[in-house]
Amino acid sequence: MKHNIVDKSVIDEMLMKSNITKMEDASIRDITKTANLIEKHTGISFIRMEMGVPGIKPHPIGTAAEIRALESGVAQFYPMLEGYSGLSLEASKFIKNFMDIDIEPGSIVPTVGGMQGSYVAFMATTACHTGRDTVLFIDPGFPVQKTQLEVMGRPYETFDIYEFRGEKLRAKLESYLQKGNIASIVYSNPNNPAWICLTEEELKIIAELADKYDVIVIEDLAYFAMDFRKDLSKPGLPPFQPTIAKYTKNYIFIISSSKLFSYAGQRLGLVCISDALFHRKYEGLKKRFNADELGYTIVYKIIYTLSSGTAHSPQYALAAIFKAANEGKMNITKDASEYRDRAAAMKKIFLDAGFSLVYDKDGEEAIGDGFYFTISYPGFSGAELCKELMFYGISSIPLKTTGSQCEGLRVCVSQIGMELMPTLKERVERFKSDH
Predict the structure, then answer these.
(1) What digits encode the pLDDT tens for the residues 186-239?
(2) Residues in Cβ contact with 255 at an 8 Å cutoff, skipping those fewer than 6 apart
(3) Peptide bond before 398: cis, by omega within 30 degrees of 0?
(4) Where are the beta strands (DSSP E) in 287-334?
(5) How far apart are CA 332 and CA 324, in angstroms?
(6) How far is CA 133 from CA 73, 122, 181, 201, 294, in A?
(7) What is the pTM of this model?
(8) In sequence order, what E strands does 165-214 have?
(9) Which residues have CB under 8 Å from 393's CB, separation 6+?
């Protein structure tokens, strides 16, 4: 290495301080800590591709509404467990306008971010049926969701969708569902980390099998409407955000305010349960929680004991954002489309330097430009490439940590503004010169 900007001894020392012995086992937070230590030690600012921190300011409609709510004194009062009614009402309209799905306001429950949304969904769905306590991940996916299951002591199984797109997905899924231990299936759409999007054919396959085996589908829509290949911003008009809810009633989908609306710091998500599923009763829930209705159990047993609801004032912010979007006064994808432009610029830099995209297609269509993409480089495993790029002031995470069977890295574009593209280009070219 002649063109590296960080000495090998520094990298090794900081990895040791972060207790990282194998890069493939390092969590996102571990790598973030390491990059922070290197920056502090050397004074070199890293190109931070490892963590999905929103890089766009929140919309003023939301912050203004939250300020008004605080000034009116809502901080004095405990929020209702089922949430602020104004939020549920606007959320129901929003889901109809941007997903073309009918769902009652009472079936929409605010949570402390999408993270708590997946936690309560896992806790509830794995208790519905005696003997069915396992979650099946269609990977790659968000690593912390597996940690959530480890924390609650629930098993999970996974497979990488890379080799099982289209009709191939059916047999692969059924090979797991036939065992009789699967309680729920989870995936993100658009996907973290690969940015693939499930096709309508694939959504139908998942729905058909969910109905056949009476399994609940948990659809993580953390990146709602951020497949920028289509204009999903017009309320009431197609195209709509794709969803499993078109094809089955056995669904829970989770909407986050963090990415599309850059409201991550206020920790607000929505768990949206089909009306039929919300009111469905399960003997397993009765045994585990002394309450048999799924929706009641999630709200009045699980959320109540975890956090007693979610913060009051952010709910007013999201309600105002939804209202503006529903009335056509706000384009929901206008600000977030900045991520598309960053991804396109970053992909070109890496591809020009000899890197390749790992997950590159949805069916026959090239994946879109958005919050994430995945890269590989000849001769390197994902873990090796992750460490190697640190010598050039670039941090990322190996795909293996996301459940992928492919070698490579996840690239997050959120912290790399267009003003940093020349720095990224110069560092990637340094890497290229040495390899």
Answers:
(1) 999 999 999 999 999 999 999 999 999 999 999 999 999 999 999 999 999 999
(2) 91, 95, 114, 221, 224, 269, 270, 272
(3) no
(4) none
(5) 9
(6) 43, 9, 6, 27, 15
(7) 0.95
(8) 182-188
(9) 5, 6, 44, 45, 46, 47, 427
